[in-house]
Amino acid sequence: MTRVLIAPDKFKGSLTAEQVAHALRSGIASQAPDWTTSICPIADGGDGTVATLVAHGWQQVRATAQDALGRPRAVGYARLDDTVVIEQAATVGLEQLPATGRDPMGASSFGMGELIAHALSTARVSTVILALGGSASTDGGAGLLQALGARVLDRHGYELTQGGAALATLHRIDLEPMDQLIGDTRFLVARDVDNPLLGPDGAVRVFAHQKGADLAQQQVLEAGLQQWSRVLEERRPSAAEAANAPGAGAGGGVGYAAIAALGAETCRGVDWLLDIIAFDDHVEQADLIVTGEGNLDNQTLFGKAPTGVTKAAAARGVPVVAVAGRCTLTRQQTRAAGFDRVYALTDIEPDLARCMTHGAALLQEAAATIVEDMRIRVEEDVP
């Protein structure tokens, strides 16, 4: 009997990780009813993290918080005992905004701070984990700190408006009200990238164009983050190197604010998530792992969920195949990343729009093909 662990990430814009997993399970069962399948939805610590944790038994807590443009909306975060997880993409993420309604200069991380404040005010919380990625803002986390009570002031003592552009006029920060609120709460940043806050590899130069910032706006945002780091480090001398820490540029600079002002530790998002759901225990019970995500591309090779799976599987000698909406990697790249084989839905249905709308059915078809290929491999291995 073959034991299959189905551990996909979401297919962004089409299906959640849990929906992908169920579709793959259905396809396998249609061809191999005697195979044992188990489902373990995963994420890379960014978009989809809360949904993945809820699928693994965490409680989803509903609250109201501002989106990146300051509009109140119902959102959720995950809680287990005295630990909460706040997901940036679901709260103040770029995907929450229409393509024509983005504001790279005024977008704020304020809503994340609102959720932290909500969690701290409604139950005992010892640890807050910030799942960064997919942000709409480049405000260095200033909005998040403001929502927790920090006062971000210009030279006349007036509170700055929200957004990264306003940071160029920053003169002083008062963190005392925030410090009183958070007390001895521990913070952890689950980062999706290792970029620093500033410079050619920083939050602005690498990511701001994705949020709609042109070159002139990028210069303003970079100047704002430079001033933000100068003033914040005056207030927190112990954070003098925070701007260069791995992940300081994550989430539009929220990683930096968490490290410098909240004393946060950081970790790779996918490693943290796989650890917290005890993924290694699932791997030990599998003969084959099926993973995947919407796009297998160069970003997959740098800390995305499927490569976290191959790393865990390689340590235990379990083969891994991947299913993707589309794959732009070469065969050499996929093998080097640890995938025995990749199945792209665009090989079944070349029309990408139809792949998005008919994802579940195509995943079932791909899963059936996996079963056929595995049986052929077994027959070839028999002497």
From TrEMBL:
Pfam families: Gly_kinase
GO biological process: organic acid phosphorylation
UniProt xrefs under InterPro entries: Glyc_kinase_flavodox-like_fold, Glycerate_kinase, Glycerate_kinase_RE-like, Glycerate_kinase_sf
Gene Ontology molecular functions: glycerate kinase activity
Keyword Transferase applies: yes
Domain of life: Bacteria
Record key words, sorted: Kinase, Transferase
NCBIfam families in alphabetical order: glycerate kinase (TIGR00045)
Protein family: Belongs to the glycerate kinase type-1 family.
Stated name of the protein: Glycerate kinase
Natural source organism: Gordonia aquimaris
